[in-house]
Amino acid sequence: MRIIALDIGDKRTGVAVSDESEFLASEYGIIDTVNLTSKLKVLIKELECKQLVIGLPLAMSGNDSEQTRKVRTFARKLSEDLDIPHTFIDERLTTSMTKNLPGGKENKDSLAAKIILQIYLDKSRLWPNT
User: Fold this and answer.
1) % of the chain residues with pLDDT over 90
2) CA gap 32, 28 in Å, rounded
3) Rounded distance between C-alpha atoms, residue 47 and residue 130, angstroms
4) From CA 122, how far away is CA 107, in angstroms rounded?
5) Which residues does 27 contact at the CB level (< 8 Å), separation at least 6?
6) Between 53 and which of 6, 10, 66, 120 could a Cys-Cys bridge form, CB atoms 3.0 to 4.6 Å apart?
7) In the predicted model, what is the mean pLDDT of residues 93-120?
């Protein structure tokens, strides 16, 4: 089974996918946020995904921002519509991390999703009960 990670934006959503062993994250691409649910339905079925990992855009203080609340609401509805569980990973600074990676300027959303997913995979493997 695979896991999909999302870096949800107002217009574009970066997508990353784990390998079947849930060890390594790879970029999948960018999807228009407006049509996200229908496109993810196809992707989840095609790749046999069992879970969504969603980047949570907390403020630098660690508090919720307006964007955090929008992503929480959107993620809850998305998870219900797709009938798949989701979990959040703090995405602070992931977009700025992409600037130092090859292709980071053009693919920052999908690279950020890849970083979010790799953080989740590493955390799950190293600290499975947290």
Assistant:
1) 77
2) 13
3) 26
4) 22
5) 14, 15, 16, 107, 110, 111, 113, 114
6) 120
7) 88
Alpha helices in the chain (DSSP H): 36-47, 66-82, 94-98, 108-126
Element (H, E) at 51: strand 49-56
Amino acid, single-letter form, for residue 96: S
Measuring CA to CA, which residue among 66, 108, 110, 72 is closest to residue 90? 72
Q: Cα 101–105–110 angle (5° rounding)? A: 75
Q: pLDDT of 14-68, one tens digit each?
A: 999 999 999 999 999 999 988 899 999 999 999 999 999 999 999 999 999 999 9
Q: CATH class for domain 2-126? A: alpha beta
